[in-house]
């Protein structure tokens, strides 16, 4: 046997080994690549600081760290999160306020709130600086500009708590010009939006009345998940909640630059000054971290808050009193008022 004939089988053997190793490594790579759970998350409006925790979690790789491959779909005037969730068109979605998950329960949709990014709903009433109105109580009997959607939302709470009457309602079209030109005007707004726009456009520094600081019990910026995910993939839901909590902590109390870059990429209308003032207001007013969240962590919800909210709305006829409102939320993925999220798992 020649040396040449001796080497041929050896070379062939190593080629076969190399092929097997290559296939094995390819298999491991495919398994690793497929390990990240793909999630489509839909927000309730165009990209803005009020969604900063989600964008920060994506930008800083926090979702990836928790084994998730997340795509954020920004909302807008034509996007209806409850419909998308009910139809299964997106995996997870944002619930703007406590009405959203309750409405889903009333409609028979199998969707549940799993965390609340906002302990305080950022809804406000806005007035010009004036001596005759120093509190929400002082607004009783005065015309107030509100949107059609608000009539069956926080206006119900204002009627129940402060004795407001529907005769006070004036239509709000999300244009602040009528407010600016009328020093006696009162209008609804969003803490980090209309007050800044009014001041920037007119030089008027409006008085702000944050409803949450006067007892309005709605949560805000909730994460909604299908019940099938909660039952069959609780580890994935928990991973999304955990990464989102980390995202909010980083966005509000660290450097928000990474999240802001993604926000501006999705929504070029956002500018640095708009984003900065919104972050400042969320910090100053404790929108994300206040109340129960001070001890239990960002995202916390409680039975007491949900019971209070449902009690007011059912007494006012918004919901049937026998609606199983407890199906609107679950506390299994967040801390309770007396425990941290880690302790509650």
Query: Based on DSSP secondary structure assignment, what is the total number of beta strands?
Result: 10
The overall pLDDT, averaged over residues, is 89
- Quaternary class: single chain
Q: Roughly how many Å apart are the termini?
A: 70 Å
Q: Measured on Cα atoms, how large is the radius of gyration?
A: 25 Å
* Residue share in helix: 40-55%
Name the strands of the widest sheet in spatial order. Answer: 2-1-3-10-4
Number of domains: 2
What letter string, H or E per element, gives the SSE order?
A: HEHHEHEHEEEHEHEHEEHHHHHHH
The name of the CATH superfamily of the largest domain reads Periplasmic binding protein-like II
> What's the CATH architecture of the largest domain?
3-Layer(aba) Sandwich
Residue stretches low in confidence (pLDDT < 50, at least 5 long) are 1-11, 17-33, 337-345
Strand count, sense and barrel status of the largest sheet are: 5 strands, mixed
Within the CATH hierarchy, at the fold level, what is the topology of the largest domain? D-Maltodextrin-Binding Protein, domain 2
User: Which class of secondary structure composition applies to the elements?
Assistant: alpha/beta
Number of helices: 15
State which percent range the strand residues make up: 15-25%
CATH class of the largest domain: Alpha Beta
The best one-word shape is globular
